[in-house]
Design goal:
The protein is of the alpha/beta class. It has helices at residues 9-12, 25-30, 49-63, 74-77, 88-103, 119-122, 132-147, 160-172, 178-205, 226-245, 253-265, 278-284, 316-320, 342-355, 377-395, 440-451, and strands at 2-6, 67-71, 107-113, 153-158, 208-214, 217-220, 291-294, 298-302, 323-325, 361-365, 400-406, 425-427, 436-438. The strands form three sheets. It has an eight-stranded parallel beta barrel with strand order 1-2-3-4-5-7-10-11, surrounded by four helices. The protein has a three-stranded mixed beta sheet with strand order 6-8-9, sandwiched between helices. Helix 15 links the parallel strand 10 (361-365) and strand 11 (400-406). This is Beta-glucosidase.
């Protein structure tokens, strides 16, 4: 069992226009006027990891971790978005991180795409342009060529659902059409990259490659709502998991049927969900060594006549046709939609084991947001409860290979900026040095990693420096 912590490029690096890096869509989004990010925050400097990577690795050593999951900035490596020009300074930066990690026996786990698409490619249609399958594969090839001799864990794409739904609904207020085109393109880009790695790089580099999905759990309010909850699951993440991990491949049957029926009734000549060809189904099916799971919370689902006309039409949520909410009695966090529901984690992992024939799983993100402060007992409690649920499914046979906490440090949390904190380490964003300080959760997580046990009574002495143990 590997333990790690995760970050992503735009959220921590800063150096947004330094040393030849070009603009990503998140540089574009955060520089819009009027601003659309809470507090008008941006990632121009963020945690300044572009300059402070050695401190980042030191923090990983202090925690005693096996793995560090981070992402590459496409525009830092390929400023045009294409392989015609490789930015040597960007390559040097990632080589420095990889080599610093390996010096201390920490394995890099690299995400190729964690949302920061080159702005130039977005202007050409981004994930709704079928050519992006080749653009992404070309970029991935460069990454394998440059770093694959030392990197044994690759993740193609982080959270396709957020890329596709949030990308088009949040930015362009379009839903129910471009998000489905995007879903197909992401799956094809992932699969083509997987097969390229498998045939051309795995024989010499001996790494593994998978995909990471955001996987909330959805619990029916009553037995009558079981079908509605299953529909939500299939739309939210089954649409990405089923084509890769099921025996039959392809989009889930219920998703195909619901979108087709709605599309025809709305006057579309064909389904708004673009179909896979038989060849594409085979290409995508089985195209992953493991499933990366990003999980935070659970919601409740019901379906009755109140759903009729509730959502805009056509739209993603109108296609699902269900009502989703959370119980107000559930323990909350600094993000209203992130409730503490550890039993949902157990049910999620059980469902994946049963539905997809127990695939190897890495928990690639799991974490808890606070408003700040070093005494984060609520975060400590969250980690313990969720790890406890994970232990239960491991005992029942789930093939969990690793657990990676979100996040190593406070970072730019997308549309809420720096107003919420996910870090095991606090970052002082007011300080030019972006000082990192371990929270209580860092001490507790370190002890979990060190002992590989869950001691609910362990209380760390935070007056003692967290320090680096032998071997790290």
């Amino acid at each position: 069992m590997l333990f790690g912590a995760a970050t992503s490029s735009y959220q921590i690096e800063g150096g947004w226009n330094e040393d030849g890096k070009s603009e990503s869509i998140w540089d574009d989004i955060t520089h819009m006027e009027p601003c659309i990010v809470l507090g008008c925050h941006n990632g121009d400097v963020a945690a300044d990891s572009y300059h402070l990577y050695k401190r980042d690795v030191e923090m990983i050593r202090e925690l005693g971790l096996d793995v560090y999951r981070f992402s590459l900035s496409w525009t830092r490596i390929l400023p045009t978005g294409f392989p015609d020009r490789i930015n040597e300074k960007g390559v040097e930066y990632y080589n420095n991180i990889i080599n610093e990690l390996l010096k201390y026996n920490i394995q890099p786990m690299i995400t190729l795409f964690h949302w920061d698409l080159p702005r130039k490619l977005e202007s050409l249609g981004g994930w709704s342009n079928s050519l992006i399958v080749d653009w992404f594969t070309d970029y991935s090839r460069i990454a394998f060529e440059l770093f694959g001799d030392r990197v044994k864990y690759w993740i193609t794409i982080n959270e396709p659902r957020e890329v596709c739904y949030s990308g088009y609904d949040y930015r362009y207020n379009m839903s129910g059409y471009p998000d489905y085109v995007c879903a197909k393109m992401i799956l094809l880009a992932h699969a083509k990259t997987f097969h390229m790695y498998d045939k051309e790089y795995r024989p010499t580099q001996n790494g593994t490659i998978g995909i990471t999905l955001s996987t909330p759990f959805y619990e029916p309010v009553s037995e009558e709502d079981a079908e509605a909850a299953e529909d939500v699951i299939q739309f939210e993440w089954g649409i990405y998991a089923n084509p890769i991990f099921s025996k039959s491949g392809d989009f889930p049957q219920s998703v195909k049927e619901k979108i087709a029926v709605k599309s025809l009734s709305q006057g579309f000549p064909r389904s708004r969900l673009p179909a896979f060809t038989p060849e594409e189904i085979e290409l995508v099916k089985g195209s992953s060594d493991f499933l990366g799971i990003n999980h935070y919370t659970t919601s409740l689902v019901y379906r009755n006549e109140s759903v009729n006309g509730y959502y805009a039409s056509p739209s993603y949520y109108d296609d699902i046709g269900a009502m989703i909410y959370q119980d107000n009695s559930w323990e909350g966090s600094a993000i209203s939609s992130l409730k503490v529901v550890p039993w949902g984690f157990y049910k999620l992992l059980t469902k994946i084991r049963e539905d997809y024939d127990n695939p190897p799983i890495y928990i690639t993100e799991n974490g808890f947001p606070t408003q700040g402060g070093l005494e984060d007992d609520d975060r400590v409690a969250y980690y313990r409860k969720y790890l406890d649920s994970m232990l239960d499914v491991i005992e029942e046979g789930s093939d969990i290979k690793g657990y990676i906490a979100w996040s190593l440090m406070d970072n730019f949390e997308w549309n809420v900026g720096y107003t919420v904190k996910f870090g095991l380490f606090e970052v002082d964003f007011e300080s030019p040095e972006r000082t990192r300080t371990p929270r209580k959760a860092a001490y507790v997580y370190k002890e979990i990693v060190r002992t590989h046990t869950l001691d609910f009574n362990y209380e760390p002495d935070m007056n003692v420096a967290i320090g680096i143990d032998e071997g790290h």
